[in-house]
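Q: My labmate handed me this sequence with no annotations at all. I'd like to see what the chain might look like in three dimensions before we decide whether it's worth expressing. Could you predict it?
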Amino acid sequence: MTAHDPSLPQHLAELAGRLAREVGAEIMRKRRIGVDVAATKSSINDVVTEADGAAERMLADALLLARPADGLVGEEGGARESTSGVTWVVDPIDGTVNYLYGLPLYAVSVAATVPDAGAFADGRRAIAGAIYLPELDELYEAWQGGGARCNGEPIAVSEEVPLETALVGTGFRHPREPRADQAAIVAQLLPDIRDIRRTGSAAYDLCLLASGRLNALYERGLQPWDYAAGALIVTEAGGRILGRGDGTPPGDPLLVAGTPLLVEALRARVDHFA
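A: Here is what I predict for the chain of 274 residues:
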């Protein structure tokens, strides 16, 4: 099965979903035993647990066995060059702080991507992806041209609403300086929308948007493993993903997502404040 095979995206989505479930079950088991901070990254708030590394190794090993020619990019440093044209972008635990504190909103995110300059900030786009929330037993899946699903049932973004009645998701980067800027954006935006939600997992935020439970979202500084699977799920559910208004692709420095019309209005607001 080659990168140009029309049946490949569905095959990869099924593989992503199976592995996300398997890894999700394992990290949930580890959470029941207890977890501690193993390291920090960009700041004291940017934590890594032993389960993050173990889960990424589990994903990497399974993908190598199933698709030995594919590449890999992982949040915890896993990397492998692709000779097939497909690169897997994975986040073994999106929402690590939630995971550490025993909050249920953490996810395993697995995406199969292909090169596409300008599609996203990293020069790749997903053709298949899955996000699994073990504590909620919710599996979101999509493949290129195949629509989006949660636990096998089709999902879609909400109907269009004006910005002033929109429920908007966001998240915050871990270093101290960007957080101050992000708080200022929230303070400026909040009076002009219905409300803000911050779940602590960008992957789950994108799933909430795709299933109509958020109207839009924005976040600065997201990395490919944060959005690769979720962005595909949103677009296959009828949403749009945008970057900065100057034509910069979505990702870092800015990703804005929402229903097709609302996303434009939200981008105009957060671009203005940013």
